[in-house]
Amino acid sequence: MNGWTTVARRTILAHSRFLTVEEHDVRLPDGRRIDGWPWVVTPDYVNVVAITGDGRALCLEVDKYACDAPSLSLPGGFIEAGETPLDAARRELREETGHSASDWTALGSYAVDGNRGAGHAHFFLATGAAPTGGAVADDLENPTCVALDRDAVAAAVREGAFRCLPWAAGAAIALAHWPAPPGGGRRSP
Amino acid sequence: MNGWTTVARRTILAHSRFLTVEEHDVRLPDGRRIDGWPWVVTPDYVNVVAITGDGRALCLEVDKYACDAPSLSLPGGFIEAGETPLDAARRELREETGHSASDWTALGSYAVDGNRGAGHAHFFLATGAAPTGGAVADDLENPTCVALDRDAVAAAVREGAFRCLPWAAGAAIALAHWPAPPGGGRRSP
């Protein structure tokens, strides 16, 4: 419960499976009503920080339409019909890096836009990642896989090298769960 | 340069200042062309992690339509016409918390959706935050201001208490820039 109520909803643009736009009539927590509130429906997606046995996170260098330069990114993608977020995360990790991982921790689910919706981002931290094959070429993003240790991921977050919001978020949230190695790490005196 | 080219663009839904939808015809890095690529235009926005002299970040507890429960959030909002991101960040901090801050660090600008655009999120870390007045009541979000120390922000990030993507991202990215106090912090042995 958040105090908001959807009184009515109607589709005003049904573009494709990637995008539908609705208008909602909503009642606010204080009882007032706002009609015609725009609401964006895009697919839920996952991103994974998968750490190998030697403590490196599998990242990708990609070209994305919305980024004006190549970006560091995380394995991930849309959740397909019938998948749980964890299913999708395992599949995307395999398809994009050829790796599987033994231990999975959910890092939360987040509304992409607090006002418009735009689906949810689901993040995971996976450890014990090892090559198992199964990579599928992606000819839209032109990805190159790179493995970064914790200090390198932290530096990339600080430098804004993850140029899209979900990748920066997933990497930075994972850092809050990923202990710096004893005696290592520039933040540990 | 990211290797993608916009060949043509047309507006297919002009809803309001909060939402326009376009279709783009795009040329991929490998020369192929995709027509009718959906592209979402929403306003750029800012979020701020503002830290007081005693080491606490000014957060808000809010009700948002897209969140199914009350959420921890960061001061922020849309960039208004004629504002730089920093202008907007200073204004939103003042309006939402009644504080101003002396030292500002830009934490990067991020495409909200790597495929659809949906504007950019701009994050800032501000220190030396102190009450100066100027708060403006927000009757849509029902905010309550709370001041959290670094450990509490890190715990909130780990627990998913920032329930919208930009707040979780802004808080987690700020942690990568905000040194743990000497001898303190649960991650420092």
Along the chain, the helix and strand elements of chain A come as: EEEEEEEHEEEEHH
- Biggest interface and residues each: A-B, 70 and 70 residues
Q: Which structural class do you get from the secondary structure elements of chain A?
A: alpha+beta
Measured as a percent range, the helix fraction of chain A is 10-25%
List the helices and strands and how they pair.
The structure is a homodimer of 189-residue chains.
Chain A: E1 5-16, E2 19-27, E3 33-41, E4 45-52, E5 56-62, E6 71-73, E7 76-78, H1 85-97, E8 99-100, E9 103-113, E10 117-131, E11 144-149, H2 150-159, H3 165-175
Parallel strand pairs in A: 4-10
Antiparallel strand pairs in A: 1-2, 2-3, 4-7, 5-6, 5-11, 8-10, 9-10
Describe the structure.
Two copies of one chain form a homodimer. With 189 residues, the first copy, chain A, is α+β, with helices and mostly antiparallel strands. Chain A is 18% helix and 45% strand. Chain A has helices at 85-97, 150-159, 165-175; strands at 5-16, 19-27, 33-41, 45-52, 56-62, 71-73, 76-78, 99-100, 103-113, 117-131, 144-149. Chain A folds into two domains: 5-41; 45-175, Nucleoside Triphosphate Pyrophosphohydrolase, CATH 3.90.79. Chain A is elongated. In chain A, the strands form three sheets. In chain A, strands 4, 7, 8, 9 and 10 form a five-stranded mixed β-sheet that branches. Chain A has a three-stranded antiparallel β-sheet with strand order 1-2-3, with no helix packed on it. In chain A, α2 (150-159) crosses α3 (165-175). The interface between A and B is large, with 70 and 70 residues.
